Fold this sequence. Notes:
By secondary structure, the protein is an alpha+beta fold. Helix content is 38%, strand content 20%. It has a single domain (53-429), classed as PPM-type phosphatase domain (Phosphatase 2c, domain 1). It is built from 16 helices and 13 strands. The radius of gyration is 23 Å and the shape is flat.
Amino acid sequence: xxxxxxxxxxxxxSAAAEGPVKETLSDKDVTAHTAxxxxxxxxxxxxxxxxxxxxxxxxxxxxxxxxARVRGKKHKHEGTNCDDWYEYARxxxxxxxxxxxxxxxxxxxxxxxxxxxEAVIANLKNEFSAVSxxxxxxxxxxxxxxDNADFTAICSxxxxxxxxxxxxxxxxxxxxxxxxxxxxxxxxxxxxxxxxKDYSGTLLAAVIIPVERGEHFIITxxxxxxxxxxxxxxxxxxxxxxxxGNADSGSFAGETEFLTSEQMRNADSLRSxxxxxxxxxxxxxxxxxxxxxxxxxxxxxxxxxxxxxxxxGIIHFPTKQELLEKNSCxxxxxxVKNEKLDVPAPVSYPWVNDSDVKYSLQYSKNIMSESGLxxxxxxxxxxxxxxxxxxxxxxxxxxxxxxxxRLSVWLDNYVERGSFDDxxxxxxxx
Length: 430
């Protein structure tokens, strides 16, 4: 059976030494070959199987939520369940969001991922609703200087609520374990009696609140890997991206912390994982490591992710007229008489689910490779005519398809060497 691996430089040299000299495969050729080796097997008939896909598009109150979760290539190849989940809720103009990645080595982690997301969202919605009723001037308080007593007091209150919600999520995972501990189908599915650690997963949660001066207040807590980041599309390269969490790891290389880890029972541990930001943003993104690891180092490579989302019609690509109407500071960059970029055609790879189907996707890294620009240079020219023409070549799913469907197709089909994990991305565009 052909092994699902990718050729490294030593393997290429060894192969060349064993036979006639052949043309060295390009990175694209190797990636394309690897993509063709993946096989598709459906979601198994296990207890509580999860659907192949989950996606949502929610546009109201001047903001748009676009979210999708797809089963990774490895799970499709092996015929196993996706372990990721996400949930979100609106509270007036406020938005609450969470993503979780069930531990791949734990057979029931998908259940832990789902119930932890549901619990943290339900708890935060309830608690933050009570805060807004008790403190109706919360928007004003969150708009005050960072050293103001009112700002400090409300931040402390919200931070405690965020941390308590993770306790509620932990309890939900415990309850899920207890409720299923005596059910024969779960014991039969994994060949032994389930344990609490079988439900382990990461958990990332964020609350975003519009405040004064066109700014947004964001508070986050992150346990485990994945990433939370904000992007201001109108800012220059150095100021456009803010990372709002730390992808912490466990005791060994490649290990991460989980919600069910003993350490998460320590209040100090959750306090150190709580982050706040206030400022002007365009988007807030929450993602599991299946996406975050493909854009490493996250600072600044998540700006490349943002560009990819724009190029593929998932995040709105503003017209020049829209930029003018906004009086955007970036319009000057888009209107500079720069040399025309060499924009490559979109790239097509076979769909894992059906090798006869191919989706054409555009990649900002390919534009950089062809044009000689680095990421900073492409960010500066992100709105000029050459890049805009690349955006016009994006794939078309169907008439009337929403952005979450585009996101689902893109997550399912974009190709990076060594990338085969479940992929979940939740985007809040404000």
